[in-house]
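> @MW can you paste both from yesterday?
MW: sure, first one:
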Amino acid sequence: MTLHINSQFDSGNIEVINHQSNPIELVIRPDHQSDFYQWFHFSVAGGKDKTKLKLSIINAAGAAFPAGWQHYQVVASYDREDWFRVTTHYENGCLKFDHASDHDLVWYSYFTPYSWERHQDLIGWAQTSGICALSSLGNSLDGRPISLLTIGKDSPHKRKIWLTARQHPGETMAEFAIEGLLQKLLDPSDACARKLLEGAVFYIIPNMNPDGSVRGHLRTNAAGVNLNREWQDATMERSPEVFLTQQKMHSTGVDLFIDCHGDEAIPYVFLVDNQGIPAYGPRLAKLEAGFKQQLLISNPDYQIEYGYEIDLPGQANLSMASSSVGQTYDCLSVTLEMPFIDNFNLPDATHGWSAQRSQDMGAALLPAMLAVLTELR
């Protein structure tokens, strides 16, 4: 049977350069109007009768984070539900993977995809809860709604907790984390969720970058703009996703903010805190310490040894979401980073870091929030 390689679907990204070569030569398409690329997602039909599919992404060296290919294993699926890792090697600037397919059709991706349909299912399910309201902040450049979930009844004494995910659309683990958090937060029998909702109202944007998600981008929106560098000068023309979110934050206030992301190269789960913002002081340091301490207990996938270099005082990049929000609202504001590869402290040879572990990490944020809730203001 002839091989057919296809990426003409939601979040699809790959181009075939040489179908006759062995391995077959592929390239990742850059984000629209941008040099960023690393996300790929495509299917191969007709591989079952081959001894092994041999594929090579020949422009891997030019990806946004080439260091992320070290130790990386491609994810594959036959049913788009169960995603597993396949043997992968990075050599001579090419990402090569061999796979003896058990079925005629197999999907390959950089990480487990989070489709636009699944996003619709998530917000549709969430709004059926008696404590969750769904609204749109406005539209993206391609005309997709920027959906906001408001959970809990607002009142002056309640803390305002904000979460965002997928400013970088290829970081799909971020929306899986939000899904896991929502499953716990909207469970009426969950004691932690009930206690949190007594003292807080939640504002959650599960997908900040719907256009990039559908287009198969790694890092940018439809205009080729990195949303997580727009928080000082967002405009409706370039970055309506950030501009509209900031407007809503201004109307509600923010007492705690978590921006969910994935890191291509670091094989650990970690938080990026705000020691570099001008507003940083003992109060925020105490809140960060309490939050981290509880998260270490809530989920052993989280750790504090590995992460980014800490910003020097006053040297934070205020064009980034967590720094901007922390400075603007003098609040506890962090970035959650999860790996594309695996957590090397607790490796999983079959799945690596996975959608399920991302969901579990999202759910683990709630006890950490509860630990500091009364001290936020």
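MW: second:
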Amino acid sequence: MTEWKTYRLADLCDTISDTYKGCADEVVLINTSDVLEGKCLNHTKEPNRNLKGQFKKTFKKYDILYSEIRPANKRFAYIDFDATNYIASTKLMVLRHNEKIEPLYFYYILQSQSIIDELQMLAESRSGTFPQITFAELSRLEVKLPNREVQRQIFGILGAIDDKIENNRRINNNLEQQAHALYKQWFVDSSTVKLGDVVKTTSGGTPSRSHMEFYVGKYGWVKSKELNSSFITKTEETITDDAIAKSAAKLLPAKSILIAMYGATVGQYAILSQPMTCNQAVCALLPNENYPYTYLFMVAKNIKEELANKAIGSAQQNISQVIIKDIDISSDIEKIKQFHKIVCPHFEVMEKNQKENETLATLRDTLLPKLMNGEIKL
């Protein structure tokens, strides 16, 4: 029978704070915004020539970058590429495993919800503007650990699920790029009409928080931070019929296109997989026979940066439905319908893959604690 031993994380890793000395002519700076749920999202971004002498941390393959800010946001990444001439911002811990633990197993430990919840609780217990953790706090957490052979078996199971999720993401990214390339080829220089003249828009509202029974319903309630540049199939919170009746929230049809109007997410967009509601920080574009959801999704994708640049306000950057309605879109209805016919199958596959990924992620997150506590025998 495999023996499991209890260790503190300090027994399994070190924090690396090797300072970038400005030796390389070009380096890639990775910030907290560049990592999410195990992936280094922007490791192919352009190098920067102006970082010499700045206090940043170096890292290498098999290290883990872990944000000190808001652990619940899951800003961490396993480095699976050659990280020569890459540096990390000071708000990212660089964690390096030792001989007691496999690097991927260490990553799955840090990904486990129990660890994230405990770190978030520690962060919120500290005073300051941002919930923050330190390596000292992380290092005191205890975990059960089998031998390295069992570790490899466990992360082999979890890794197979993650590989399928990543493959679906790559397929979706490729399909979206194909649709976007066709959109730019057909519509960038076409005759135009104002969006608000041909497409209905609306927004939502927030049911009273003094009636928490409003938030145990069957309708997804989308907040601007949940706009994911893809299909939204579920939300953090749901609301009831009564909540809709007693607030500005409205039930939006499936395939509505959502665009964020307030705060740091201005211009971010998404598409509803099923009928849902949203808050007042979100504008909804309602597709119609002449302007189907596939075309409106590409419009939203194409104007993201334009809307962000139009944001106004010093305390909170924002735009309005008026600005969105004033956007120029194509008036060539026949070409739009032809575009929809070509790319609609792409979107159907993208939606299917998105739903499958959420099912796989739930399976992985259910298996992870059971495998790592020895509850499931291998």
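> thanks! The chain has three domains: 5-145, 158-186+335-378, 191-331.
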